[in-house]
Specification:
By secondary structure, this protein is an alpha/beta fold. It is built from four helices and 24 strands. Helix content is 11%, strand content 17%.
């Protein structure tokens, strides 16, 4: 029997070991990205020496891909090339470091491979670092919400970030107007949240019309005024969620909004909108939530509202709808919350209101409703909130009202 050469055998085993180890050796971020992260941490320590959230970030650890809050790409190997790992994600929310300024982000702008940057809930002060963010052309997800960012949205906005899909700037102190070209190049944007800021002025005439992939748009809790531009939203054919509440919009509701066939959430509450509610509202047959409360809308409720058979929440509170509740409202069998309070409704409570068997909250208070409480309301056994005060109802309080366990 021929004995194998022990040295050759050991060499073979070593070569196989190295080949197997190669993917793991390449699973390490580039040195310059490691140094950028360490510089960012050092900037925080300079203002708060007791900062410990990023303790895993240290120079003695050679691989920053193993650090907390850091995500790296997987290394790839092919016959011709080998691509090492790079940093693609930083989840830096809730860092619990006081007195942070947006200038502290500067080192991170050298990590051009970044695809996700979450810096929310840090109460960071300063302005939007548009110039630095412009270097991150691979960015897909940017979240700067729940900070203390001031100043305006840059005139050129986020034009270099053409790959951006998710942008959240909510709960800051951003002021000024929405720039006419501020979001025009972000054609891949799906999610945009500018709510709870101090944005004022009017929406540009073309609004967000170029963002044809947009699914979620929230501009609520600002000071935006003027009319809702008809062309500003009509091209957003994929929109599912639209919230313009708690602003100062006036004029009528543009009919183009009723052409957004995928819309499930529409909140225009707490504005100064006038006129009537168009019968075209019945086209929004995927709608789950409709809030038009606290506006100056008048006239009658269109019977087409009964077409919204998937509706779960309907609030038309504080309006001037005086001609009653259309009988078609009984078709809304999925409805869980119905608020028609503080209108001028002069009629009886519909006798078939008991068909709304999923109702948990019903508010008809402060109207001019007459007669008594219809017996069909006994079927609303999911009710946990009922408001009928301030009407012209007569008769005794039905004994069965006291049988509702959750009321």
């Amino acid at each position: 029997m021929v004995m194998a050469n022990p040295s050759l055998l050991l060499q073979s085993i070593f070569i196989i070991f190295i080949i197997c180890l190669l993917p793991y050796l390449s699973w390490s971020c580039p040195e310059y990205q490691k140094q950028a992260l360490l510089q960012f941490k050092s900037s925080i320590l300079a203002i708060d020496s007791s900062f410990h959230t990023l303790d895993s970030w240290n120079s003695s650890s050679s691989n920053c891909c193993l650090w907390d809050k850091v995500t790296c790409s997987s290394p790839s190997n092919s016959n011709s090339t080998s691509t090492p790992s790079v940093v693609i994600g930083l989840n830096l929310s809730y860092l619990s470091a006081p007195l942070m300024s947006s200038n502290l982000l500067a080192p991170l702008f050298f990590i051009r491979s970044l695809r996700v940057l979450n810096f929310s809930h840090n109460f960071m002060k300063g302005q939007i670092p548009a110039l630095g963010l412009g270097n991150l052309s691979n960015l897909v997800h940017l979240d700067l919400s729940w900070n203390s960012i001031e100043g305006q949205i840059p005139a050129l906005g986020f034009g270099n970030l053409s790959n951006l899909v998710h942008l959240n700037l909510s709960w800051n102190f951003i002021n000024g107007q929405i720039p006419a070209l501020g979001f025009g190049n972000l054609s891949n944007l799906v999610y945009l949240d500018l709510s709870s800021n101090s944005i004022n002025g009017q929406i540009p005439p073309l609004g967000f019309g170029n963002l044809s992939n947009l699914v979620h748009l929230n501009l609520s809790s600002n000071s935006i005024h003027g009319q809702i531009p008809p062309l500003g939203f009509g091209n957003l054919s994929n929109l599912v969620h639209l919230d313009l509440s708690l602003n100062r919009f006036n004029g009528s509701i543009p009919l183009q909004l009723f052409q957004l066939k995928y819309l499930q959430y529409l909140d225009l509450g707490s504005n100064y909108l006038q006129g009537g509610l168009s019968s075209q509202v019945g086209s929004l047959q995927d709608l789950r939530m409709l809030d038009l409360s606290s506006n100056r809308l008048s006239r009658e409720l269109p019977k087409e509202i009964g077409n919204l058979t998937k509706l779960q929440r309907l609030s038309l509170r504080s309006k001037k709808f005086s001609n009653g509740i259309p009988s078609s409202i009984s078709y809304l069998r999925e409805l869980e919350e119905l608020d028609l309070g503080k209108n001028s409704l002069s009629m009886e409570i519909p006798s078939d209101i008991g068909n709304l068997s999923n109702l948990s909250s019903l508010s008809l208070g402060k109207n001019k409703l007459t007669r008594g409480v219809p017996a069909s309301m006994q079927k609303l056994n999911k009710l946990n909130s009922l408001d009928l005060e301030g009407n012209l109802l007569t008769g005794e309080i039905p004994f069965w009202l006291f049988d509702f366990k959750d009321l």
